[in-house]
Amino acid sequence: MRVFFIGFGQAGGKLVDMFLAQDRKLGSTSFRGIVINTARTDLMGIKNIPMEDRLLIGQTMVKGHGVGTDNVTGAKVAADEIDTIISAIDRRGTHDIDAFVVCAGLGGGTGSGGSPVLCRHLKRIYREPVYAVGVIPAPEEGRLYSLNAARSLSTLVNEADNVIVFDNSAWKNDGESVKSAYERLNEEIVRRFGVLFRAGEVSKYGVGEMVVDSSEIINTLRGGGISSVGYAISEAIPMAKNGGKSSSKKDNNGGLLSGILGKKEKKAEPHVDIASGEDKSAKIIGLVRRAMLGRLTLPCDYSTAERALVLVAGPPSELDRKGVEKSKSWVEENIAGVEVRGGDYPVDSGYVAAVVLLATIGDAPRIRELMELAKEAKEEVVRSRERSHTAMFEDGVDPLFE
Ligand SMILES: Nc1nc2c(ncn2[C@@H]2O[C@H](COP(=O)(O)OP(=O)(O)OP(=O)(O)O)[C@@H](O)[C@H]2O)c(=O)[nH]1
């Protein structure tokens, strides 16, 4: 899929920076994008995006210093400067893209407030679908961040065609602060979503037996709402099986796709031994099961998903049509809906990876928690307004006739 990424705010900007770096590393031109921020210093921290594609907004209001976790101001700045934003997007070129993907951390101010506004305008102006990748904060970041995320997310689900969520709290290790984990978490995000969004592009390593095209990704996400992604990676494929390409010498991360499919990790991902000589399709089914049953970008009840997409990426010698078909049937038996699409994506890698997109999920505990928190906060505001109103009356002051 040809994707136009827009990174809104600091987290969004860093993610888009990494998506574009990944694309460049692959020698691909599937991804392009711009980054937007209200803080000048955050834009300066971007590494791979040319200066002309870094847009500073809100200069009159916040003078390049950011909106300081105030997402109402974030939304206002975006609305006031929407024409400047759309011009920057048009300048970068949109004629051949399949979708827009707006990335943002939803707990802050700029991305949290700005991304729903941007999604609304993108949908109004362009025909292509508009997806959001929303990072939700860990509870330890504080109540304000959770409230911002709840508010942003409930708007975003109405403005974007689908919101694919990554939950920081589910991904940080025990004892690790969220901030110190950012770099690692961003790699996890870009690895999963990179395979997903790139599916349907012709790979220079050939055409898979069951090619997924961009319309299948779009149809999977069509139901809207919130989606989550699962991922699993095999053990390293021995050199002989991989046409001598498993590049443990030149690159211990699995060939050209180093950092893209990833490498064996100690505890984050479940692994299957692809090299054991067992039946190829059984191994693919095993990988797909582990992707769906393992840690999802947003932990949720997978059985409530309305649609799913199964992608298997790896060297052509390890891809197997029957395995993908059987995996799709297994996913179909385990989710609420019956629409399960899937295919393979040949790449030069020392690993096989499975990505399962669970679209339009019905239940995720962290989302429920955020919504309840927002409801409580709203009730608190109403109560405190009533209290101050009563107090003023007790003092004999009627605010209306003061
Ligand atoms: N995974 C991940 N999450 C991040 C990262 N940076 C920030 N976040 C998350 O995103 C939320 C918003 O942070 P920022 O992106 O810095 O906020 P912003 O949109 O720039 O808004 P302001 O700084 O308030 O103007 C934080 O509360 C974190 O939950 C990152 O690099 N990776």
Automatic annotation (TrEMBL):
Identify one Pfam family in the record.
Answer: CetZ_C
Name the Gene3D superfamilies on file: Tubulin/FtsZ, C-terminal domain (3.30.1330.20), Tubulin/FtsZ, GTPase domain (3.40.50.1440)
Alphabetical UniProt keywords: Cell shape, Cytoplasm, GTP-binding, Nucleotide-binding
Where is this protein found?
Answer: Cytoplasm
Q: Which residues form the Tubulin/FtsZ GTPase domain?
A: 2-194
Sequence positions that bind GTP: Q10, A11, G12, G13, K14, G109, T110, G111, E141, N168, N186
What InterPro entries does the record tag this protein with? CetZ (IPR032907), CetZ_C (IPR048737), FtsZ/CetZ (IPR045061), Tubulin/FtsZ-like_C (IPR037103), Tubulin/FtsZ_GTPase_sf (IPR036525), Tubulin_CS (IPR017975), Tubulin_FtsZ_GTPase (IPR003008)
The main location class comes to cytoplasm
Determine the domain of life of the protein's source: Archaea
Q: Which residues form a coiled coil?
A: none
Function as written in the Swiss-Prot or TrEMBL entry:
Involved in cell shape control.
- Family to which the UniProt record says this protein belongs: Belongs to the CetZ family.
The name of this protein is Tubulin-like protein CetZ
Query: Which organism is this protein's natural source?
Result: Methanocorpusculum vombati
Name the gene behind this protein: cetZ
